[in-house]
């Protein structure tokens, strides 16, 4: 038996219970990942994210963008955005995610973290306009960063590193039972781009 085969098997669920998270590792060559990274950095309509948290208007350092099949309205943290129409490269990346995961997606939220000072705090992606228990496919480009899961009740945590050109999928009850985060780190000085392909219910 090959002792190493299971570690490369994306069929392996990283969560012990209460959801499914599969890490596929790199789903494209480094050369392809470099091309997409440069292209996304330069062609996406990056905007600083705004939110109203406890009545305070916050503008994040991290930049975001929102694309989809239709100008979907997407509301979170009390702000509403309308999805832009897909670029050629986003459609190519959506296709890669759909082929790898056997699911379909109709929208994509993009995040640009300029360096390790920027991250994302513990949260679940359980917004009401997202398909309940729908798969969320996450592609990462640029700096390799740690990504964590924390169970809402037991507080059990699981960390992994998301590689350049890699795919991670969260599905089933993951968003109901687990939170996830991208911790800030002093060690990273270069940008990371993350794309999460999702299904919005209209
Ligand atoms: O940057 C990441 O890897 C995850 C981003 C995320 O959790 C989100 O956009 O909801
Ligand atoms: Fe998230």
UniProtKB/TrEMBL annotation:
Domain Fe2OG dioxygenase: 104-201
MF annotations from Gene Ontology: dioxygenase activity
Top-rank taxon, per record: Bacteria
InterPro entries per record: AlkB-like, AlkB-like_sf, ALKBH3, Oxoglu/Fe-dep_dioxygenase_dom
One GO term (biological process): DNA alkylation repair
Keywords assigned by UniProt, alphabetized: Dioxygenase, Oxidoreductase
Keyword Oxidoreductase carried by entry: yes
SUPFAM superfamilies xrefs: Clavaminate synthase-like
Gene3D superfamilies: Alpha-ketoglutarate-dependent dioxygenase AlkB-like
PANTHER family referenced in this protein's UniProt entry, alphabetically: ALPHA-KETOGLUTARATE-DEPENDENT DIOXYGENASE ALKB HOMOLOG 3
Protein's name according to its UniProt entry: Alkylated DNA repair dioxygenase AlkB
Species assigned in the record: Pedobacter insulae
Source taxonomy: Bacteria, Pseudomonadati, Bacteroidota, Sphingobacteriia, Sphingobacteriales
């Amino acid at each position: 038996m090959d002792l190493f085969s299971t570690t490369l098997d994306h069929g392996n669920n990283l969560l012990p219970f209460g959801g499914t998270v599969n890490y596929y590792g790199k789903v494209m060559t480094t050369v392809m990942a470099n091309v997409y990274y440069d292209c996304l950095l330069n062609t996406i309509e990056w905007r600083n994210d705004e939110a109203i948290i406890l009545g305070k208007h916050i503008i994040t350092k991290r930049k975001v963008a929102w694309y989809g099949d239709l100008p979907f309205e997407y509301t979170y943290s009390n702000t509403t955005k309308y999805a832009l129409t897909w670029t050629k490269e986003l459609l190519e990346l959506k296709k890669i995610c759909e082929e790898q995961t056997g699911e379909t997606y109709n929208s994509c939220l993009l995040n640009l973290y300029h360096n390790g000072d920027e991250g994302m705090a513990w949260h679940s992606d359980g917004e009401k306009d997202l398909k309940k228990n729908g798969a969320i496919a996450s592609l990462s480009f640029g700096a390799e960063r740690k990504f964590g899961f924390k169970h809402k009740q037991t507080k059990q945590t699981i960390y992994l590193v998301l590689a350049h050109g890699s795919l991670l999928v969260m599905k089933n009850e993951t968003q109901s039972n687990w939170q996830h985060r991208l911790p800030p780190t002093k060690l990273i000085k270069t940008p990371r781009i993350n794309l999460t392909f999702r299904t919005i219910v209209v």
